[in-house]
Here is the input.
Amino acid sequence: MRKLLFLLVLALLVGATAVWLLQFGSGYILFSFAEFTIEMSAWTGLLIYLAATVLLLWLLLSWRWIAGAGGFRLWWSTRRSARKINQTAEGLLLFASDDWQQSAKLLSESADKSVMPVVNLLFAARAAADNEQFEQARTILQRLQATYPESRFIADKALAELHLLEDQPLEALQILHTIYTKNPRDKALLRLLTDAYYLADDWVSLQKLLRDLKHYKAISEQDLDSLERDVYCNLLDSFVLDSARPIAEQRAKLEDIWYLTPKKRHKDPQVIASYAASLGRAQSPDKQQALLVKALNRQWHPELVKQFGELESPSPEKQLLVAEKWFVQHREDADLLLALGQICQRLQFWGKAKDYLTAAVRLRPSIQGSICLAAVLEKMGDSKASAEAYRQGLISALEEQS
Here is the structure.
């Protein structure tokens, strides 16, 4: 408002000054060139001069705008940016279409001109890896590390993932351990560490990592539950008796592993099966039998039944009594029938063993059942029936392979 008022006052002053000057005469201007002569009043010449000056200034300012950031330069810059974005988008679309070779080529070649060079190089490396061009992918990632040092962490993770795709978990772990100390909360890094430990069969390190996976919610609860089961099963399965060390010491080590296992896993049939098998390797059949009986009374599971049947108990009569009690409720269970047949076979109760094993094979033909039945029949002197049982076992083996 003040500017408008100032301009009005200035216009009035200029007008008044012009009127005052006109009182002294208008004057004139004579312009002559060759045969042309132009004559005009001084005021007309002044108006023409001012109009020409204003026009020249307008033309200069317009050119400056066109050539500057607001005009042609902006248009050209926008056009180049759009072209770069289109190249990146085309490369990403090729990646999504599984055209990894063309995607890697386009994204890599356009990276230096792209407005998102890190994205270009990351997806170019991934496309090359998916195309099993691992050396090309490694070269692209090394280029990313050298050209954009601020993206080194992302490049290192991608390089570690590349080693995992090549089934090189130890090489991946070398990289991951270096960056983990500075980024212990990174979820993607935790998942990569999980995969690397898993592929390397490093169950001890993976067991220590479970707490962070849960705390930072790096994986879903369902995946965490499955991973935890695998970890403790493999920790127990990895127990092997060493004849060079005292057996009592090794049994204590096995008990330490079981003690470290979460309490809720003590009721997990798969974990119990692994622990029971380890007790068998530790030459603790009494403890193994007690564990299996307790677990099966609580929850029926075929793997536990199978182990119970294969267990060479120091008290097989008691083992048979327990199994026959279960048989009252599980008469059509092929695993239990096989287990009963195996126990009777060890007790040399040939008649009962034949009945149980025949029923087991009838319910579910299996190699193990046929072999046990053939051995029992041979002991009973029925060579023809024994040969037939062996033949059925061979048929079952061929069917399983096919």
